[in-house]
């Protein structure tokens, strides 16, 4: 299992239940990386998509207390989620948000794909700073490039002490 997100320089990931930046290169990376795969999210993340609809060409799993609606697999607990995920190859599973789902699942992720944005997005939700976490090592990093006026870098972190299910 892997996690994928973009984060500002304070490890903020969102603002007002949406993205902080419009980043076409990052969105293309997200689409190409997760297409045909399994995406795991919380209910607020699902609601943040256009018309609150699940992402196309992916298996959408939503972790929430109530039924999340059509076109998704709803799971109500981590135990139920882990049971559902046994049906899929671990390398095809991507955690895509929000913050509480990242906090719960990043310890179980083998890798975390982070598009780092060198800007302050005024975030109101954050993820743990993987650079400061001794359980994670930065194993790959692209050169800096511009995306819609923002300097970004594509980074891959490896979890050195991954929790197992």
Which helices and strands appear, and what pairs or packs with what?
Layout: E1 2-7, E2 12-14, H1 24-34, E3 38-42, H2 43-48, E4 59-63, E5 73-75, H3 78-85, E6 93-97, H4 99-105, E7 111-117, E8 125-126, E9 136-141, E10 145-147, E11 150-159
Parallel strand pairs: 1-6, 1-7, 3-4, 3-6, 4-5
Antiparallel strand pairs: 2-8, 7-11, 9-11, 10-11
Compute the CA-based radius of gyration.
15 Å
- Number of domains as seen in the coordinates: 1
In percent terms, what proportion of residues is strand?
A: 25-35%
**Any idea what the CATH architecture is?**
3-Layer(aba) Sandwich
Helix amount, in percent?
10-25%
Number of discrete helical segments: 4
Q: How is the CATH topology named?
A: Dihydrofolate Reductase, subunit A
- SSE string, helix = H, strand = E? EEHEHEEHEHEEEEE
Q: Kindly, what is the distance between the CA atoms of the first and last residues, rounded to a whole number of angstroms?
A: 11 Å
β-strand number:
11
CATH class, anyone? Alpha Beta
- Flag low-confidence runs: none
- Structural class comes to alpha/beta
Q: For the record, what is the CATH homologous superfamily label?
A: Dihydrofolate Reductase, subunit A
Task: Describe the main β-sheet briefly.
Answer: 9 strands, mixed
User: What do the pLDDT scores average to?
Assistant: 96
What would the principal axes of the Cα set say about the shape?
globular
